[in-house]
Amino acid sequence: MTFSTNHIHNFSHVQNPSFLQACMRQASDHTPVWLMRQAGRYLPEYRDTRAKAGSFMGLATNTDYATEVTLQPLARYKLDAAILFSDILTIPDAMGLGLSFALGEGPKFAHNVRDEAAVAKLAVPDMDKLRYVFDAVSSIRKALTQADGRGSVPLIGFSGSPWTLACYMVEGAGSDDYRHVKTLMYSRPDLMHRMLAINADSVALYLNTQIEAGAQAVMIFDSWGGVLADGAFQEFSLAYTKRVLAQLKRSHDGVVIPRIVFTKGGALWLDEMGGLDCDVLGLDWTANLAKARALVGGNAGTVGKALQGNIDPNVLFATPAVIQTEVTKVLNSFGQPHTDKTTTGATHIFNLGHGISQFTPPENVAILVDAVHAHSKAQRLAQK
């Protein structure tokens, strides 16, 4: 199923359709807001559930726990979307690399991929090994369903990008200098391309299976794309994000499924990313929203991308007055929102420029969410 660029979709299956409307460049009553890592360690209730689960993977692989923590931020805040609680690295874990998380530390793999023999062992994993993810998606959708049969807010599924997965697979953990992955990339680009092709096909199948399980939008996190040099980004990251997007379902059960791409540090290549076959481009806090809107946002009825972002996550450590001021700056930077419900236009989804810090005071998130809703509604009223 294909849709014209100015097709107006009916999202009546969701009580609060603002996120889906904005993804498809349709006018909404307010600027929707959700936060990367909104279900996470900054919430005391999340820490309590994780303690019960015994480990991060114990939490992520238990359907009931994954559902519980996905819903926790929605119970606290008036967020406009839920995002599946999982990790960007479930695919390489299913490939047999052995993912683990020590408390307070980042992910680590028991096995890394740094030579021809290790690359030769890679294959698109059996999706049954990721059944726990799809069971969680179905469970969360059911939990979000209200008495009238509609979802309260839409559910976002996600994966790491092929390049970002490759970084962790080669490094074996997070990295400060990306030495191992870049060594492999420059010395054996043939191996890197082979790995990235397998990763791209895996990500596409994984996201499509999330859609079949009930995800109503999907997001590709190219968290490490911005560490690449110009030229290398296009060859080793962007090309394989394109390969994923070419395989993704555009709709499911007759409803459009928005596709979001977020590249941390990617503002340099925004003009090229504007050509991606996706609906939304996520921006980190280094990007200027007004310039991004002018470059890729499009005008009423024309082709363009919705924009997502991009307040600095560390603003959440400031005073309530400063948080409100910074929210206003971001919304004003994007400019007047699109309000014509008969056509498409430039739209904005408010988010952080990267994931929320585990040290964030939970009460400050409520201030941010309320400020987004209040100011974005005032912007719309000012146009009437």
Outline the fold blueprint:
Layout: H1 18-23, H2 44-53, H3 56-60, H4 63-76, E1 82-83, H5 90-97, E2 99-101, E3 107-109, H6 116-120, H7 131-144, E4 155-160, H8 162-171, H9 179-187, H10 189-213, E5 217-222, H11 232-247, E6 251-252, E7 255-256, E8 259-263, H12 270-273, E9 280-282, H13 289-297, E10 306-311, H14 320-334, E11 348-352, H15 362-382
Parallel strand pairs: 1-4, 4-5, 5-8, 8-9, 9-10, 10-11
Antiparallel strand pairs: 2-3, 6-7
Helix pairs in contact: 2-4, 4-7, 8-9, 8-10, 9-10, 10-11, 14-15
Instruction: Indicate the structural class.
Output: alpha/beta
> Overall 3D geometry?
globular
CATH topology descriptor:
TIM Barrel
Largest sheet: 7 strands, parallel
Sketch the topology as an H/E string, one letter per element: HHHHEHEEHHEHHHEHEEEHEHEHEH
Strand content: 5-15%
Describe this structure in words.
It is a single chain. By secondary structure, the chain is α/β, with parallel strands linked by helices. The protein has one domain (18-382): TIM Barrel (Alpha-Beta Barrel). It has helices spanning 18-23, 44-53, 56-60, 63-76, 90-97, 116-120, 131-144, 162-171, 179-187, 189-213, 232-247, 270-273, 289-297, 320-334, 362-382; strands spanning 82-83, 99-101, 107-109, 155-160, 217-222, 251-252, 255-256, 259-263, 280-282, 306-311, 348-352. Strands 1-4-5-8-9-10-11 form a seven-stranded parallel sheet. A two-stranded antiparallel ribbon has the order 2-3. It has a two-stranded antiparallel ribbon with strand order 6-7. Strand 8, helix 12 and strand 9 (280-282) form a beta-alpha-beta unit. Helix 2 packs antiparallel against helix 4 (63-76), helix 4 packs across helix 7 (131-144) and helix 9 crosses helix 10 (189-213). The protein is globular, with a radius of gyration of 20 Å. The mean pLDDT is 95.
